[in-house]
């Protein structure tokens, strides 16, 4: 599922059911400083939306408003059909939150803590979705089965972060908020986490709103990437769609007669056509590289910040 590239101030609407998140003209002001100056976006069931932006762009503020932890200054916000400022316990039971850090009692054992937290969700179980997640199954999914009886204070950093994720999904949320979820993960744990996100979206149709500074992770996970800068969403789309939005030259690489060549071309398709017209089957190892997500992201942010001055 992918969205359409949009300019600042427009909204991506996907046909089908009502959006899980619907935000229009969201505003937040702290004194004289306007942090959010009209944020617009929506997210559908089973969609992974990644929110990117420089430090101070308002990513955390946006998520805290949608979680119901912070009152907005203005604009429209609906999360699971409810104004988050008025969400009750039944509404909160449908949310999952994974923060950058989570304070707890180090003497709790992993299974005990998850069983305890899961018990709060039992009253909100439905025929469509049984809550909470069966603890032993959850432990297996997040890779903590071997540590089930370990005191939290004795977990490694990576295990601790896996537990953070388990805490966030123990209630089998319809909407999951993830703030820098893979900080401290080794490559294997990061791959397992990505598999978990795909399972949640594919099997349970869980919607995921994720912030990260890891652009490679954003590209791998996102159905749609939102770039937040100067208090607004300045671009939205898949990584490929965003790269197409940024006008720039592509890098064409190829080999011929044992020699390697590299050329930058504004119109890569026409250049490659001419290349084959001249040299035909002598061309080998052809590769066309469009601007990557990092380059695209940096350019869009710089342009937005330049226009905002």
From TrEMBL:
Q: Does the keyword Nucleotide-binding apply?
A: yes
Locate the coiled-coil region(s) and give their ranges: none
What organism is listed for this UniProt entry? Actinoplanes sandaracinus
A molecular function annotated in GO for this UniProt entry is: ATP binding
> Which protein are we looking at?
ABC transporter ATP-binding protein
State the annotated membrane topology for this chain.
Answer: Peripheral membrane protein
Q: Which keywords are on file for this protein?
A: Antibiotic resistance, ATP-binding, Nucleotide-binding, Transport
Could you tell me the superkingdom of the organism this chain comes from?
A: Bacteria
